[in-house]
Amino acid sequence: MSISDLFDSGFKERNKGHFSAIVRVAMENGHLSPEERLFLDKLAKQLEISEEEYNEILANPMRYPINPPYLYVQRLERLYDLSRMVYADHVLGPRQKEILTRFALALGFTPGNVNLIVEKALSLQVMGVDLDTFVYEMQHMNR
After folding, report:
1. pTM value?
2. Secondary structure class of 92 (helix, strand, coil)
3. Which entry of 25, 51, 114, 115 is 20 to 30 Å from 142 by CA?
4. Cα(89)–Cα(46) distance, integer angstroms
5. Does residue 3 or residue 42 have the better pLDDT?
6. How many Å apart are CA 137 and CA 130, to the nearest integer?
């Protein structure tokens, strides 16, 4: 096995873990709404989750380990990705804030400031900022 195969394998496993964690959050209430299903369909494509893996994860989201980001910057980077997907195409419509709040809590943001974080994240998406600007603005939002 080559080094690139190991890297690709590890990357795929992290993506599956990330996708699995998002599925768990989306299924907290026991089912997926049509909007959540569309969001997961789109996310699976972006994370290069095959149809077989997708169905497997939906059937048993606990199968893959969650790899929560340890560093705050990594959490912000994942929040950037998720907020872009939630905002893009307005697939989730009026439920954008609710869903992104659940994802942000799952990423480790605290309930005390999660609403402020979600508002800021979505406002930065409206402005179309890049990842670096997003991370900078989120790190400096209370200053």
Report:
1. 0.72
2. coil
3. 25
4. 14
5. 42
6. 11
